[in-house]
């Protein structure tokens, strides 16, 4: 019964991932508000189904079983590259702010925080990759560094707050805000799982699934806006969308590894 419900849940989420960009393209290209509401309704339904499927199981398998079939070491390195790209983006942003006639102390602080945390987190995910690649490393032995990815995600939240004066409640902005907040929650849960070294919590699986879904939607949304000439190709939002989707690979298969081990444990009982 559980496998059947999981199949229908997965099918609906996958179908929504294919349908949502098409509906979004129609809403942007034809400037159709009905399509925009259909898009919002579809995404909301997918988020509700993800939450239901994730939270109905209170405890999953152990979060960090390094021998896994999902090549999490490779996706860790891709996530590391995405964070290094974010570091370069933050450095460019910092340079632009420092050379501007009217300097913003808030933007300077968030850019410095984002750049430092992105660089440290990039190295952190290389160590995570070593652990999942069976290189006799255990990244959990490192202290304090586990909260740095969460600080990087928070720096993006602070950046959004600094730019909130011109905030327009569009689908694109809502997707970005939601994806970043979910990413903060995921990294918080990730750090807790490192310390607990026990069964993975349902909220960890929830935020991993939500971020995987939202990051793909945000990336396709930015792609659609570029294709329809609504935004410039080179922008901070596009840079974050690229970093976010590079992260998505690791987070998606990290969750799949937990769920796969959970199913294996149930089979063995």
Keywords:
269 residues; mainly alpha; two-stranded antiparallel ribbon; 8 helices; 2 strands; globular
Would you give an account of this structure?
The chain is an all-alpha fold. 77% of the residues lie in helices and 3% in strands. The protein contains 8 helices and 2 strands. The chain has helices at residues 2-29, 33-55, 72-99, 105-132, 148-162, 171-196, 202-227, 236-268, and strands at residues 59-62, 199-201. Helix 4 (105-132) runs antiparallel to helix 5 and helix 5 (148-162) runs antiparallel to helix 6 (171-196). The protein starts with a helix and ends with a helix. Mean pLDDT is 86; it is low at 165-169.
Q: How large is the count of helical segments?
A: 8
By DSSP, the count of extended strands is: 2
Percent of residues in β-strands: under 5%
The run of helices and strands is HHEHHHHEHH
Strand order of the largest sheet: 1-2
Shape: globular
CA(first)-CA(last) distance: 17 Å
Oligomeric state of shown chains = single chain
Radius of gyration: 19 Å
- Taking pLDDT < 50 over at least 5 consecutive residues as the criterion, the unreliable ranges are 165-169
Look at the helices and sheets and give the structural class.
mainly alpha
Instruction: Please give the share of residues in helix.
Output: over 70%
Major sheet description: 2 strands, antiparallel
Mean pLDDT: 86
